[in-house]
Design a protein that fits this description.
The protein is α/β, with parallel strands linked by helices and 356 residues long. It has two domains: 7-150, 3-Layer(aba) Sandwich (Rossmann fold); 165-345, Glycogen Phosphorylase B (Rossmann fold, 3-Layer(aba) Sandwich). It has helices at residues 7-13, 17-23, 58-67, 83-91, 115-118, 128-137, 142-150, 163-175, 202-216, 231-242, 259-266, 278-285, 332-345; strands at 30-33, 49-52, 72-73, 76-78, 93-94, 97-102, 108-110, 184-188, 221-224, 249-252, 271-274, 290-294, 308-312. Helix 8 crosses helix 11, helix 9 packs across helix 10 (231-242) and helix 9 packs across helix 13.
């Protein structure tokens, strides 16, 4: 498996592993992944070996290219379209290759069996316009598409956490008095530095929190989540919540956790409001009831596995992958209504991450 990034894509690709195991009971899977994503796959029960490679580091690519030749693979799944990985996939001795590789002229291309996915991407053989149209028209989720391409049953992502991540989350819950009866809503409404148009405006996040607590007519503890790129944004959310006429209880979850600790702390939530981001995939792996909102990207592509609802933009530029996409139709009213339904549907659920 050559799948190195982005982090969310790596995690959601684990959905194919149970199906591969059922199809091939003697499965021995080697996963080539970026160093930053190693912790997302290294403890998975169906991953036999993890090799890291940074495509931007020539020495890293060279080291992998010297290590893997000499092995005859039964199947290479080449799921990244960067040139170094296309070149690597083309160089491997394998009975079957599916995914990105090089054509006879040494140019990046992909095999016909992965057309349903790569035909919506940058390598599309029909050009960007056709790829974008297919992306907008697509109604199948990522797990469905990949399962059908690989001839396996559709599954769901898994992220087994180390004991220290569970311990960190338990300590966090103890420090902040998060009892089992506490209603905790995680807010991960940013999207890193690359996709600003995926974000929910700060003032709308603040308004949502106030409206949700009012609609529930009970105290809600809001957990403000994010990575290092969200530090300044989260500070503005915290200040906005503190400035409400009736400020809710708010906890700054911090922005400097490793991936496993972040996933475990996120897993303390009873509800997650999130953008189409890594946190969405981590929340689904932690089986947290979720409301996810979408403007520049495709909502159908995301499978919530029965854990929640999607709120998609109804503006004309929805799923356009534009940096300045219209997010005005993702309103507080729609988000709150979806949140109430999700909370009702998942009352009494068992958390994968314990608070006590």
């Amino acid at each position: 498996m050559i799948k190195t990034g982005s982090l969310g894509d790596v995690l959601r690709t684990t959905s194919v592993l149970p199906g591969l195991k059922r199809r091939f009971p003697d499965l021995e899977l080697t996963w080539l992944v970026a160093p930053a994503a190693r912790s997302l796959v290294e403890r998975h029960r169906l991953v036999s070996r993890v090799i890291t490679c940074d495509p931007a580091d020539a020495a890293s690519v060279a080291a992998v290219r010297s290590e893997l030749p000499g092995i005859r693979w039964d199947w290479v799944l080449s799921l990244d379209d960067e040139v170094p990985f296309c070149t690597l996939a083309a160089s491997l001795e394998t009975a079957r290759l599916s995914g990105a590789t090089l054509d006879a002229e040494g140019q990046p291309t992909y095999t016909d069996d992965v057309e349903p996915w790569f035909g919506m991407g940058l390598l599309s053989k029909d050009g960007k316009e056709a790829a974008d149209r297919r992306k907008r028209e697509n109604e199948r989720s990522h797990p469905e598409i990949f399962a059908s391409m690989l001839g396996v049953e559709s599954g769901r992502p898994e992220l087994p956490l180390p004991a220290e991540a569970h311990a960190a989350a338990l300590g966090f819950a103890t420090d902040f008095g998060l009892e089992d009866s506490t209603l905790v809503c995680g807010l991960n409404t940013g999207a890193g530095g690359r996709w600003r148009s995926k974000e929910l405006p700060v003032e709308r996040v603040v308004a949502y929190a106030g409206a949700l607590e009012e609609a529930l007519d009970r105290p809600v503890t809001f957990l403000v989540l994010g990575g290092a790129a969200e530090r300044e944004r989260n500070d503005r959310i915290l200040a906005g919540l503190a400035g409400l006429d009736a400020p809710p209880r708010v906890i700054d979850a911090g922005t400097d956790h490793d991936l496993n600790t972040f996933a475990a702390i996120l897993g303390l939530s009873d509800l997650l409001l999130t953008s189409d981001s890594l946190a969405l995939h981590l929340g689904l792996a932690m089986e947290v009831p979720t409301v996810a909102f979408f403007a520049p990207t495709s909502a159908p592509e995301i499978d919530l596995f029965g854990l929640g609802e999607k709120v998609a933009s109804s503006a004309p530029d929805y799923c356009s992958y534009r940096r300045d996409v219209d997010r005005s139709t993702i309103t507080v009213e729609r988000l709150v209504a979806a949140s109430l339904r999700v909370l009702t549907a998942h009352q009494g659920r068992r958390r994968l991450v314990a608070r006590s």
